[in-house]
Amino acid sequence: xxxxxxxxxxxxxxxxxEIYSFLKNASRCVGITLEIKTNVELxxxxxxxxxxxxxxxxxxxxxxxxxxxxxxLGIRLFNSAASVEICDNKILTALTLQGNVKTPKTVIAPKxxxxxxxxxxxxxxxxxxxxxxxxxxxEAYGSFGQQVYxxxxxxxxxxxxxxxxxxxxxLQEFVKTSxxxxxxxxxxxxxxxxxxxxxxxxDFRSNITNGGSMKKYDISPAxxxxxxxxxxxxxxxxxxxxxxxxENDEPMICEVNSNPHFKSSFECxxxxxSMCIMSYVKEQMQ
Length: 286
What we know:
Elements: E1 2-7, H1 14-29, E2 33-38, H2 42-45, E3 56-59, H3 64-72, E4 76-78, H4 81-88, H5 90-97, E5 106-108, H6 122-131, E6 135-139, E7 148-151, H7 154-164, E8 169-173, E9 181-188, E10 191-199, E11 213-216, H8 221-234, E12 238-245, E13 251-257, H9 263-269, H10 273-285
Parallel strand pairs: 1-2, 1-3, 3-4
Antiparallel strand pairs: 5-8, 6-7, 6-8, 9-10, 9-12, 10-11, 12-13
Helix pairs in contact: 1-10, 3-4, 4-5
């Protein structure tokens, strides 16, 4: 069985290469030949009538247009183009999850345009009236918590928005009960395969990349159900789900990652998510 591991041709770092190695090694263990292909090299080759198409694609990128082209050729993608598109955009994630699982209260910023920007900011005052201060501001696109900000005053919120230019963003309530901590729940095939607590005493964000720490953490059935339902709602085969501590430790879905960096989870609890993923893929293709 031949598979392609689709990665981004412009992202070159040890962090990403380690994940690709995990997935390639796991594929060999289940009898799948997994070839790495970049979105750059596939830009034109998909039109080649002599191209040998893979049996499946493990889509570890966010190039949604490429994902849709591959699906148009009748190739099975893990994860699908639609689910990758939703996860890549925090606004689409919030809209998709709303009403299906518990999430932070959210206000979506109105659209503006490049060269125009947010010239009027009255909507920020209205959003803060709904969400209260401090308020979390998230760019629609971003990873590792680097495009997430905390505004303690209206003036701080306005200054953040000025720096965003014309970028799309949303505002969310600051969940005090989960300040600096959340749980990364890894889900494969509708089942929780591992979970870990992420915490940071110096930042409201818990991301390991931002200096956070981690430790093994066993979740309750209610938390597992919330993470699995989030994946099912978006249509994901696998994902890393970030779950916050709501009031009385109620699970609150923060974000869902369609191509999670699971090395930290492996180091924390010893569960190799790549083996879980490739075993699931093999099962689905039989």
